[in-house]
Design goal:
Distance between the termini: 5 Å
Radius of gyration: 17 Å
Shape: globular
Helix content: 10-25%
CATH topology: Metallo-beta-lactamase, Chain A
Strand content: 25-35%
CATH class: Alpha Beta
CATH architecture: 4-Layer Sandwich
Oligomer: single chain
Structural class: alpha/beta
Order of helices and strands: EEEHEHHEEEEEEEEEEHEHEHEE
Number of helices: 6
CATH superfamily: Ribonuclease Z/Hydroxyacylglutathione hydrolase-like
């Protein structure tokens, strides 16, 4: 399995465009997958530099209804004419973020593409085939990201606390091994892993994704104990973690101290084979 990072907040060199967002290209024996599309068309430019032919992608998974994960959908749909796009059925609702100045800013997806016939809207669980499965419906509040308090769903004129029911995760099974991919883990990476384990009776071999441990969109940490507890939990799973995006470099540094070689950071332009 080959994974290429087409968009992320950092980059391995100045030759790649970095942005606040996430886009992963995953190539398995039977699929060419895009997990999220970043915030803009940057992923497509980086794809060219990494020799990824986006027209050959056969399916897309959008992790949740925020622009930094689905902002590149228009670009992708103009390049690729065949791939189905798997979104949660609530992904196109009206999501907002409370910015440091107190203004609530729209951070949702572009509603003008909502009626595209290639969208597949998912509920709690969808087995695409023997290799791929999408799941949401994660319960629990254990070690949940404190930054969630600044994220809202607008209903009418009211701003309700986002419960992230629109967040979904991807499981890839290949050669007897399992990869779990998350977008931002707004539901809490510990809760997501425990949900995975309760449903399957085992833990994934690898996890890739952001853990939403930065605060107000930067690296300021207000919950150091939370990061430490998450690091200890992840270390005890014996799962190898590749993190990125909203984890933040400060939180990653602390997780690295705890987990050592069991965690690595992925930047735009990185490629790995697992």
């Amino acid at each position: 399995m080959i994974i290429k990072v087409l968009a992320e907040d950092t980059s391995e060199s100045i030759g790649f465009i970095r942005e606040h967002g996430l886009c992963l290209y995953i190539e398995t024996k039977t699929h060419k997958i895009l997990f999220d599309t970043g915030a803009s068309a940057a992923f497509a430019q980086n794809a060219c530099k990494m020799n990824v032919d986006l027209s050959e992608v056969d399916l897309v998974v959008i992790s949740h209804g925020h622009y930094d994960h689905g902002g590149g959908l228009n670009t992708f749909l103009s390049i690729n004419s065949k791939a189905k796009v798997y979104c949660h059925q609530r992904a196109f609702e009206k999501y907002y973020s409370n910015r440091p100045n107190g203004v609530k800013e729209y951070i949702g997806l572009d509603e003008t593409i909502l009626n595209n016939e290639r969208f597949v809207f998912c509920e709690d669980c969808l087995a695409i085939d023997e290799e791929l499965e999408i799941f949401s419906g994660v319960k629990g509040e254990k070690l949940s990201p404190p930054g969630n308090a600044n994220l809202f769903l607008k209903v009418g004129e009211d701003y309700l606390q986002d419960d992230f029911s629109h967040e979904q995760n991807l499981i890839i099974n290949e050669n007897g091994k399992t990869l779990l991919i998350v977008g931002c883990a707004h539901k809490g990476i510990v809760n997501i892993i425990e949900h995975f384990h309760s449903e399957r009776g085992f833990l994934p071999d690898w996890i890739i994704g952001g853990f939403h441990l930065n605060y107000h969109g930067n690296d300021e940490l207000d919950e150091s104990n939370l990061v430490n507890e998450i690091g200890e939990f992840l270390l005890n799973t014996n799962t190898h973690c590749y993190t990125c995006h909203c984890t933040g470099t400060e939180a990653y540094s602390r997780l690295k101290t705890i987990m050592g070689e069991k965690i690595e950071y992925l930047s735009t332009g990185n490629q790995l084979t697992i």
